[in-house]
Amino acid sequence: MTDWLSKTPDAARAYLEGHRLDEVECIISDLPGIARGKAVPASKFARQEYFHLPDSIFYQTLTGGWGEAAGDEGFIEKDMILRPDWSTATAAPWTADWTLQVIHDAYNLDGTPVEFSPRNVLKRVIQLYHDKGWEPIVAPEIEFFLVARNTDPRQEIKPMMGRSGRPAAARQAYSMTAVDEFGPVIDDIYDFAEAQGFEIDGITQEGGAGQLEINMVHGDPLKLADEVFYFKRFIREAALRHDCYATFMAKPIEDEPGSAMHIHHSILDIETGQNIFSGPQGGETDAFFHFIAGLQNHLPAAIAVMAPYVNSYRRYVRDHAAPINLEWARDNRTTGIRIPISSPQARRVENRIGGMDCNPYLGIAASLACGYLGLLEQERPDKQFKGDAYDGEEAIPRILGGALDLFDEAKDLHDVLGPEFARVYSIVKRAEYEEFLSVISPWEREHLLLNV
């Protein structure tokens, strides 16, 4: 066993037991959350401490275009140094040979972190918490659809065929029969997760046709973001094994609920290990309310990060299991900010705004950044909402362009996430938005061609 393998998690070494490692995938998340990097023979990986990629991978739009993200010295595609984080080494169990994946961190040639690398953005926010003596804890929820293969973008997305030979049914939330329809895919998801050393807290059928949710055990934000990054990859691979697609689009099917990445937050005092949202007698603390106020005050500007595409805003529809405002309430899933039932030790705040299409590093970082600003500003939230929040006013951006305008103005949020990240992110997202606006849709051709 090489020296570097001895640094990897137990699950990676267990996966390789009795086998020869063939290949290592050296990967890093770009802005959309796509794995970029290089696949190298294991013998070569053992000899390298780092490798290079151009920083232009963070200027690339989802469609393969480029944002005009040049700095003062122009767009010169500088090389970055990518160094492995051994704690992230894990199996790639869908491959034909014995392969490991290792997430890398991006550094400039002078050794400083690349500020617009998504994983570095999250690490920056976590460090700000640590500097205050706080340990942020999160628990993401992953929602996605299993759909029929769709090789023609002009065709509507349809639910996959289940074991019964019938399309997956909608309006069957929490149905075990519905879950059984996808049994073979789910079996592979569990097998892949086990091979990679990931713990799934549960899988449930959601309200959409072929829509599933995976709950993850709470823990360190960076570790959980790494796992969501890996989960999205291996869930797609599990689906392809069974002649279907897994999609993490926020709103893939018309008139069906969208897919969210709800994020539960709690904050521990590093010295005592106590949840700062609960007092000595178990009551709600000022910090608890300050965190909620931070979400209410700063999420409008952060939505451009948590809902990063034009499709993301189709999810925010009344009575479709997605919030339309930032009201908060206890045990109320119609609000954008929910306080789940829990013991004082487990008291937490759930942010229901984020879509599953967001980059997990950036989505978690943005949500934590809003709460962090709230803890610093020490303001009180609006009065707790009573009743159905869908009866309230819409109070979040409904289009990406408006969300980006709010993001660009939010200098306090930029200071937390990193000004250089905010600059590059805005430029890339505006390039994607402009490209979308240049496309004429079927709706426009159908209703405008001969009628206006």
From TrEMBL:
The lineage of its organism: Bacteria, Pseudomonadati, Pseudomonadota, Alphaproteobacteria, Rhodobacterales. InterPro entries: Gln_synt_N_sf, Gln_synth/guanido_kin_cat_dom, Gln_synth_cat_dom, Gln_synth_gly_rich_site. It comes from the Bacteria. Belongs to the glutamine synthetase family. Its cofactor is Mg(2+). Pfam families: Gln-synt_C. It comes from Shimia sagamensis. This is L-glutamine synthetase. Residues 118-452 form the GS catalytic domain. Keywords: Ligase, Magnesium.
